[in-house]
Design goal:
- The longest helix is centred in the middle third of the chain and has 134 residues, at about 5-135.
- It contains two helices and no strands.
- The chain is about 95% helix and about 0% strand.
- It has one domain.
- It is mainly α.
């Protein structure tokens, strides 16, 4: 055989092989590569979107945390204010109760002093009457007794 015919046969075979590959093999490979490329691009886009959403969620959680801390601080401040108010109210109530007890005690003391004065006056009248009788060695009439006692009490 001639080399030219062989070469021509090989060229035709190669051309047919290239056409076959371009028609039947190359499109599925290109499609698979494009699908793969699209999946990778979609994955990268989803990754970027996930990072963005993660950053937004992080910012939102920090905002919520700051808000919760502010609310907690406000609640604690209100509780402290209420506790201080309760303490002040209790002090005022205790002071008022203390003053009432002191006033009652003073009234009781004045009443007891009045009773004691009456008792002392009564005993003093009896003692004056006895002393007068002993001095005079006789009993004086009731009107005179009363007058002597009142004069003696006024002097004391």
């Amino acid at each position: 055989m001639n080399i030219n015919v062989t070469l021509l046969g090989q060229m035709i075979t190669f051309a047919l092989f290239v056409l076959f590959v371009m028609k039947f093999v190359w499109p599925p490979i290109i499609k698979a590569l494009q699908d793969r490329q699209k999946k990778i691009a979609d994955g990268l886009e989803a990754s970027d979107q996930g990072k963005h959403e993660l950053e937004l969620a992080r910012k939102k959680s920090l905002d919520l945390l700051h808000e919760a801390r502010a609310q907690a601080k406000q609640v604690v401040d209100q509780a402290n204010t209420q506790a201080s108010q309760n303490i002040e109210d209790a002090k005022a109530k205790g002071l008022k109760e203390n003053q009432r007890i002191i006033a009652d005690a003073q009234n009781e003391i004045y009443r007891e002093v009045g009773l004691a004065k009456q008792e002392v006056k009564k005993e003093l009248k009896d003692m004056v009457l006895l002393a007068t009788e002993k001095l005079l060695q006789k009993e004086v009439d009731q009107a005179t007794n009363q007058q002597l006692i009142e004069n003696f009490i006024k002097e004391i």
